[in-house]
Amino acid sequence: MNPEPEPEPRLNLCVIPVSAAVLLRLHQRFQFLDKDSRGHLRSEDLEAELSENPIGDRIVGAFFQPGQETVDFPSFVRVLAHFRPTEKNRTRDGVQPEPANSRNRKLKFAFQLYDQDRDGKISRTELLQVLREMLGLQVTEEQLQSIAERAIQEADLDRDDAICFDKFRKSLEKVDIDHKMSVRFLE
Amino acid sequence: MRTNSGVICMIFVLFLCCTTGKCKLEETKPTNSVSLDTVKPHPNDIGEPQPYPEEEQGKLPVFTMNYSRIQIPFEFTLWVLLASFSKIGFHIYQKITIWIPESCLLIGIGLIVGGIMYSVKEEPPAVLSSDVFFLYMLLPIVLDNGYFMPTRPFFENVGTVLWYAVVGALWNSIGIGLSLFAICQFEVFDLQDINLQENLLFASIISAVDPVAVLNVFEDVGVNEQIYIVIFGEGLFSDAVTVVLYSMFAFLANMPAIDSIDVFLGVARFFVVGIGGVLFGLLFGFMAAFTSRFTSRVQEIEPLFVFMFSYLAYLVAELFAISSVMAIIICAITMKYYVEENVSQRSCTTIRHVVKMLATISETLIFFFLGVVTITTVHEWNWAYILFTLLFAFLWRGLGILVLTQIINPFRTIQFNLKDQFGLAYGGLRGAICFALVFTLGDTINRRNLFVTASVSFAKVFYIKIRRTNKDLNTINVEIHTRTMEHLLCGIDDLCGQWGHYTGKTSRDSFKMFNDRFLRRILLRDRKAESSIVSMYKKLELQNAIELLDTTMGDISAAPSLLSLQDEKKEASRPKKKFKATDIRKMHDILSKNMYRIRQRTTAFTSKYSLPDDSQTREILIRRHASIRRSLRAENFREQPAQNISKSLRYYSLQPGGNLDSALPLRRRSHAIPEVDRLRSSGVSPRSSSRSLIPMSKLNTIEEKRSPVEASVASTHPLEPSSTEDHLDEVFTGSRVRGRRAPVPAARRRGQNRVDEDEDENISESQGEERHLPPRGWAPENRDLGANEAGNSLLRPSSLRSQRSWRT
């Protein structure tokens, strides 16, 4: 089954998170990644790109809904839409749903990278895992523990030994999220 | 003691230099005097006529001295040595460098030596004369800058850079020149004979940005990438601007009147200079790249081409009086991209090392002689002029930056705040080049010495170390999270494919396509994929084998246990530790040093004296394997309700407090190869970290070997499956002692069993069966679906099995 060259019509009903040109390019990219022309991507296809990345498997995991094994094109676009650069001077329309690339949504995406079990908190284990993935191999286990401990101490106000999303967001308030989590290609 | 020895060394060399200086004095006496004492006339048996017939005839000279013959190279070497010793001395005594930048210290030492020479009535070697400076001293520095320049940020910011360089230079020079001229009008200062053109000339020199000084000043300051790139680029382009302005004003200074046509010609000249520089750079860069395509048999001279072609570019540009700095930079950028793919690893390292070395030497010498010449030249010290020069320079530069930034900030996605602007302003101030340029002012200009003095003082003032901008000690959280996000972004970039790195402008895409289709085919060596991969593999293997033999054998922790949940629960119940400030700082250090550098986004800007660090790419290669394995396991365990197991199993098995260092070489060995294969066959050299990887597809699965690790390491080492290449065996004999399984190199298109291992594994019986499963691996664009499916299904129960066996 060959995927259609045009995006499926049902996508037009929702708010398209990216422009038409970008959509086309993403579709080409989707087709490229989908080597067997199945119409959806499996995790292996995505992992091929992210092999070098220390948290590559988490990123891949973010594309898949829990329980699903495949990603179809609309979901692909929806996830990538998080990385559009935020537009400034956007009229805040209360009726419209929050755009995918708002700062909040970007932070939520990043938060979910840590929070694999989707319980809304980054537990110490989860933090340790991510730290281990990202840190080089020269760091001892004790040091890792201390770092994770410190991180949680800094952010954890309700003493449940985990970082909730609000705290996560607050600790990053000075950081230019838009710069750090935007791909200009998706503009 | 070390400081003492350093100081002694320096004094000794100082002494040497002075004595050689003194020797020059005696040079006026003919060598007669020396020869009278020691050099005997030719021995009789040669039968030549005696030069000094009244001398006694021939005893064989036992000890002769001929200083004049070696004088020039000898003195040169001594000067270089002296400067280098001072450098060593500074680093031995670390505290000094905190307060004063190295360049200032070098100037200081130069001052001392200059003082000594002055008292001896000696002339220092004319290092800072125009020719020597521009032809020899400046070149390595510029080459270094160009070669190690991060190209992607540079091209992304080209607009900004041009804006600041061109407009800024114009603004500055005209502003400073005019205000100085205004000052000169006051009779009080007795400067009336400096006319407008001369002022403008001087101002144009002062106002341009000097890449040498900039990078020096910012070496120790935590400056962010954007500022670095803008200043760096500004330095380059302003060379073009300066050349034009300088020649224009110099020309005008000799002309009685100025026509408007001259202004127009000046603008035209600017374009000629700039574009010509770029063109020449490209030309020579391509020539170098093309040449390197054929040098596979003569690898020893490969680095030579890089240097020779860049030098040619420089000289030809000087010939036509176009911007040679730009020519070299463009040449270096072009060359680097293609040459690094063509030449061998060793040549690549050599090139980088030599470039760095030459640049460091050159820079050291420049600063050193800046100090020396200060003392020894004739100075005309006019307080007013100099002070006003400093004042105006700073003033106009600051104003210029403010105004320019205001105008251009709306066009940039990353805007400059005030702190950035201050950095821009400060960084753009003058240095050694200005001094040399002033030196070259013809003597027709009366106040040449005044200018010299002014520029010298100018340079000095602004070398005072900028107060180290306090890196806001981010909280640990921020550091971790920002790094996560950077990795994430990198990953998303990869997912978006090659275009993800570009802004989507079609010009960029078309360049990439043009590059891939034509340039790479012409300029790159025909990739004999097998041999290059195999050779790379061999190299890595040898390296790792050596490492293996070096590390002691007993380091593998005996009973690696995972951080089971029980441990974590225990820790959680511990009372909250109090973290001392030192601990926190250490944590920051650990984080910053050990987190993976994101490729393409950040490079080590912290020290320009060290080579960029490529070891991270290696580590990332290792990490890839780990993440693959983890994802495999994650897949397996997605169905499992007991998430706890999956999480704990994802850890590398290490005791708490276990030493990860020992694990590293082993892992490197086993994991490095598949990455290298993949990278090489995709045409990307693993050395160059600034490349987006062409997407690859998997070929074979990577087999998981998780089995309980026993204390005994030296278990029997089952042999590899059939397709082992011979050279592997001898390499792995070392490994056999440690009980490791050797990974098999993936010859690309063969569906080989790729064996993987972990540092805590031991070979168990169960693996015998597992080995024959069709594994998953990597290969370029060659998907083997059948193997994948089968591999998946077969793999799951096996790893489940192994894991279960481990758990019990």
Automatic annotation (TrEMBL), chain B:
It comes from the Eukaryota. NCBIfam families: b_cpa1. It is found in: Cell membrane. Residues 681-692, 793-808 have a biased composition (Low complexity). The lineage of its organism: Eukaryota, Metazoa, Chordata, Craniata, Vertebrata. The chain crosses the membrane at residues 70-90, 97-120, 132-149, 161-183, 227-251, 263-291, 311-333, 354-377, 383-404, 424-442. Keywords: Antiport, Cell membrane, Ion transport, Membrane, Signal, Sodium, Sodium transport, Transmembrane, Transmembrane helix, Transport. It is a multi-pass membrane protein. GO terms for cellular component: plasma membrane. GO terms for biological process: regulation of intracellular pH; sodium ion import across plasma membrane. Belongs to the monovalent cation:proton antiporter 1 (CPA1) transporter (TC 2.A.36) family. Residues 81-456 form the Cation/H+ exchanger transmembrane domain. Residues 558-662 form the Sodium/hydrogen exchanger regulatory region domain. InterPro entries: Cation/H_exchanger_CPA1, Cation/H_exchanger_TM, NaH_exchanger, NHE_CaM-bd. Residues 34-54, 677-808 are annotated as: Disordered. Residues 1-25 form the signal peptide. Its main location: membrane. GO terms for molecular function: potassium:proton antiporter activity; sodium:proton antiporter activity. Residues 737-752 have a biased composition (Basic residues). This is Sodium/hydrogen exchanger.
